[in-house]
Design brief:
Elements (H helix, E strand, L loop, with lengths): L20 H4 L7 H18 L5 H4 L7 H18 L4 H5 L6 H21 L11 H18 L2 H14 L4 H14 L2 H14 L4 H13 L3 H8 L16 H13 L3 H32 L2 H12 L5 H19 L17 H22 L3 H11 L15 H4 L4 H12 L7 H14 L2 H15 L4 H14 L2 H4 L4 H15 L4 H11 L5 H14 L4 H17 L11 H12 L5 H14 L14 H24 L1
Length: 633
Amino acid sequence: MIQNAGPGTSNTTTSATPSIAYFVGRYENVSNDTVDALDKLYTTLQELVHPRCDAVRCIPLHFLRGERFASAFEAYVQPKLRKGVSSLFNSVRSLYSNKEKVAAIEKSATAIISSLEDSSTFPGGEKKESPSVLMWSYYFLANHYDCLGDYTRAMAELEKAIEHTPTMIDLYLCKGRIYSHAGDAQRAAYWLDYSRKLDLADRYLNTKCTKFMLRADRIEDADRIVTLFTKDGDTTLFDMQCMWYELEVADSHVRTAKFNLALKQFTNVLKHFEDIEEDQLDFHTYSLRKLALRSYVGMLRMEDEIKSHQNFLRAGAGIVEVYLHLHDHPESGAGKEGDEFAGLSEDEKKKAIKKQKRAEARRLAQGAAAPAAAEKGKAAAETTKNGKPVDEDADGMALLKVEQPLQEALKYYRKFENSCRDRIKTHQVGFELYQRLGRPLLMLRCVYRAIAVSGADHPLVHMLIVRFFHAVDGELGKSISNATVKSVVEEARKELLKDAKVSEYNDKYGQEAQKDDLRRICSFSEMSALLDESAKKAAAEKVVTAVSSLESNPNRTVRSILSLKDYVRAYELVGGKLGNEEMQKTLKEISGRSFPLSTFFNDIPEFKEEEEEEADKVELEGEKEKGKETASS
């Protein structure tokens, strides 16, 4: 047994076994002699020790090179294509950090498809393969192009697979995923719903469709779909502590500026973690009574780290960011006294006003006539029909209407400030908060903690460093009267900037960045505009040049390191803080070519689900007629 084998392993009180991820980084740059020895070792394992083990066939793909890699790759994928293993691409995705292997994979996949189309055999083989093998080969190549960001070719390969086998659910699931990566959330949600309807008993499809609906901001549809698998059709997701759903709903409300509802969902997630902590008291007596001491120790270790979970950070950071937004933009809802419907749409406001008027009329009618009945009604109102307490702030208005948003943000930030200190997001939101509160030492602490997590070269950390010294050199520095605080700031300046000026430090960072490193270029450009207003035009040109270099670079490997969000951020930076609308139009054209299916960068007609459904019906009728003609002939 191997304890703490590495990334991807379980670290519990029971035995831990290493995953394939443990070997990925260790076998990338080994010598040729080591490659020969490892190849011999794993060949022996395959033939004599573990002939049916998948890992001993997959791991050699990470150290083999050239023709040996191509042969091993084909030997690995061909049996899985025969069996129709839909997760085949995920098992080789870790190879996509090597551009030579990416090219070899594409060459092998296209050769397999070409051979199957011509003779229904694998390259160099004589055995006739099942027709489904060609469909799974199309599916693999579609995932390959999707991973590289070539969404047009990915969709073309997927359409071939759908035309080959139009009843395969995985194909429509993949189609929705490609649309999501390409930047069309509405069409992605439609195709996930389409795949769900092909198998209404599949809980995974139901859950996946719900998530895509929420990312398309279709909350009502998502709520209707997710409740299909809840008890008696009731929405009991809060009682089930379904955090992923609440976080996705909260993110959707943030995008639609319904901050009261977003705060409500975020706080619900934090409440779940409090309940988990309290539940350990019940397990304590159970463990002592049943002598389940091993499980008890495991539970205690889990509880010690429960608040370092990513869901706790997402909820806490989400609350802080909403309150920071309310502080910066009081008109969003928190600053309007008496506006009980801030963050609601016009239709929702009308409904809420009507409901409020009906409640007021009912109160006036019952108030003086039946005080005893009113008391009884009040007592009954304290519980629901299921005997659960009534939520007095169901719409989150009490969370929204606070007099001091920064103090509320500070209260929630302290909940995860230390438990999630190994995440850069923690220190990013902490820096934003402490800057608004005017606390330079706490800002500096966030900077140092961020450096410890990701290093000073990380684009976000670089921005924190520059913004800190720019702030203490400006208005914030004038408010520092304590000599000790000043000395700490100066020591940090010597350590982080190496006695250089802030502008010189930022210029050096920009010079060291690769011309197609968009994240670093955006970080450098934004800080250049912050330090010098006259540098905005040059900064905007540098961002556009970086995006152009990405488009013309033929040696890209995994495009996921630069997603649609990175391009959107560059676009908003050029038109926003850099204030160059002409450059922004150019950037939109270039980004539109990189993401031809994106509704953000391209003028794609508005998606209408009714038209798609009608087209599907016509296509289905055509397939039926074709089947009748074939049967009659």
